[in-house]
Amino acid sequence: MSQKWDEFSKSLADESLPRRETLRRLGLAVTATILGPLGIEFARAGHQPKPPKPPKPPKPNQDPCKAYCTCGNSRQKDQCLRACKACNGNTSRLAGSCGNYYCCGNGEVSCGDYCTSTANDVYNCGACGHYCDEAGTYESAACINGTCEYECAGGATRCDGTCTYTGWDPANCGACGNACDGETPFCVDGACAGCSPELALCNGACLDVNWDTNNCGACGNVCGGDTPYCTAGVCTHCSSGSENCNGSCVTLAWDANNCGACGNVCSGATPYCSQGVCVDCAGSGGAVCGSACIDVMWDSGNCGACGNVCPVLISRDSVSAIGRVHDPRIVNCARCLRSPSWN
Asked: How far apart are CA 209 and CA 212, in angstroms?
């Protein structure tokens, strides 16, 4: 202690200080000497503030409902307490908000303002707010016992973490990792093939055997004679869309003598055939084109009037070079009526 006083006296002697500053320093030194043992530290300009008191620990055996229900007014608080009592004090089952709390059912918990089971809810799987990632292609996701589970759906196989169908995946054809390339780039029924699934390889060419008259149903099967057409892989007497009625190919949708079926003749008050049904053409809003009743508002081959075929605009840039191409297969009558300059 005497050593500190010596150092303090020396500092006063070394400095040329006014009398008031000397007395102030002397007072601080005396105060620090007296209160120092009590653990109070002083600085030359003042003292440090006391640290804040730690929060009080929760009361033992505190009613969880009273601790939870802190609504602003007594009516809402009482409503919350009643709902909490209905939950036997289990506040994790309380859903809603002040004035509208309710108790979730057994096995459910409250996730905000609604009740759910975290055992099987993909949006709250295992805990509120923990949602399962979206399932990938050919994959299904489910929350099972609080854990997100993923599995391939509909017979798909997981290859390198991704679900796929090995029956037609060229990168995993027949088995994971078996890639199709070169002359057989397609996968058909689990085997690499030279053509896509809807086509057949006939003499080095990929053909649609459903409609090819030289390869009808199978390579090399040529349609001819009384069955010159190929329809759905079968040689037929009439082309697609027509039926053989007593040796003649007719269109059942528009033929008044074979309307909807061979031999069904339209007559009397409904003398016309429209979409396979006998109708009164004027009464149905149609127009008589030949022997058929046609809806000229939608038929691209008779658009606005019988025989008026809608043009097909190939592309905006090639109009001047190509001009207008008439193709009754393209149903675009509504657009045709909006642009009469194309008629």
From this structure: 5
Closest CA to 143 of 129, 132, 154, 128: 132
Q: Which of 164, 195, 193 is nearest to 180 (CA)?
A: 193
d(CA 13, CA 40): 28
- pLDDT score for 316: 32
DSSP state of 260: S
Rounded mean pLDDT for each run of 10 residues along the chain, 343 residues in total: 54 55 58 51 40 48 84 88 88 86 87 86 91 90 93 91 93 95 91 89 90 93 91 87 85 88 90 85 70 76 83 40 35 59 43
In the chain, the amino acid numbered 143 is C
Q: Kindly report the CA angle at 286 between 285 and 287, in degrees rounded to 5?
A: 135
Q: Return the sign of the alpha-carbon dihedral for residues 264, 269, 272, 278.
A: negative
Domain-wise residue ranges, the chain: 2-38, 64-105
Q: How large is the C-alpha radius of gyration of the chain?
A: 45
Q: Give CA–CA dist 38/188, Å, rounded.
A: 92
Q: What is the 3-state secondary structure (H, E, C) of 178-239?
A: CCCCCCCCEEECCEEECCCCCCEEECCEEECCCCCCCCCCCCCCCCECCECEEECCEEECCC
Q: Do the bridges between strand 243-245 and strand 248-250 make them parallel or antiparallel, or are there none, so unpaired?
A: antiparallel
H/E element holding 292? strand 292-294
Contact 110, 95 (CB under 8 A): yes
Distances (CA, A) of 59 to 63, 68, 71, 294, 320: 9, 14, 20, 87, 90
* Strand duo 102-103 + 94-95: pairing: antiparallel
Six-digit token string for 18: 């006014």
